[in-house]
Amino acid sequence: MSPTVFSDQDHAAMQQAIAASRQALAAGDNPFGATLASPRGEVLFTARNNQNTTQDCTGHAEMVLVREASAALGAGALRGATVFASGEPCAMCAGAMFWAGIARVVYAASQDDIAQTLSGPQLATPCAELLAQARPPVAVQGGLLRDEAAAALRGA
């Protein structure tokens, strides 16, 4: 299997997601961020985890992104788009992205990276495994800027 090749636009979008994860941590939330990019690669929206500050257990970065981007840009902006997530999305977030019409998910830190760094419950079904069953299909790619995202998880 050949290694995944990511574009400069992919790198820039993921850097924004990782920056949002650092902002989440600084605000007292879990260190996760997500960026929405159009099918042409233009960054449209960035969100961060807000579980603690909003006292909402569904405040994962990808869920916040889907809700807020849909409200701000319209649901059509999500269809066919890419979500860049600083951490591998859980099953809840994968489902929300699927139902929103996201066509591609790119993540940095894996669920294993997250489990090794953060304590707490884990819903450890791999995002690619879950979305492989989706119709229409959702492309999933992992590992983009993984070390940088793992450092953000550690607060480094």
Provide a brief overview of the structure.
This protein is α/β, with parallel strands linked by helices and 156 residues long.
List keywords for this structure.
156 residues; alpha/beta; 5 strands; 17% strand; globular
Helical residues, percent: 40-55%
SS summary, helix count: 7
Distance between the termini: 32 Å
| Poorly predicted tracts of residues | none
Mean pLDDT: 95
Give the strand order of the largest sheet, numbering strands 1, 2, ... along the chain.
2-1-3-4-5
If you compute it from the alpha carbons, what radius of gyration comes out, rounded to the nearest whole angstrom? 14 Å
Overall 3D form: globular
Could you walk me through the main structural features you see in this protein, from its secondary elements to its overall organization?
The relative contact order is 0.17. Helix 1 (8-27) runs parallel beside helix 7 and helix 3 runs parallel beside helix 4 (91-100). The longest helix is centred in the first third of the chain and has 20 residues, at 8-27. The radius of gyration is 14 Å and the shape is globular. It has a 5-stranded mixed β-sheet. Strand 3 (82-87), helix 4 (91-100) and strand 4 form a beta-alpha-beta unit. It is of the alpha/beta class. Helices cover 43% and strands 17% of the residues. The N and C termini lie far apart (32 Å).
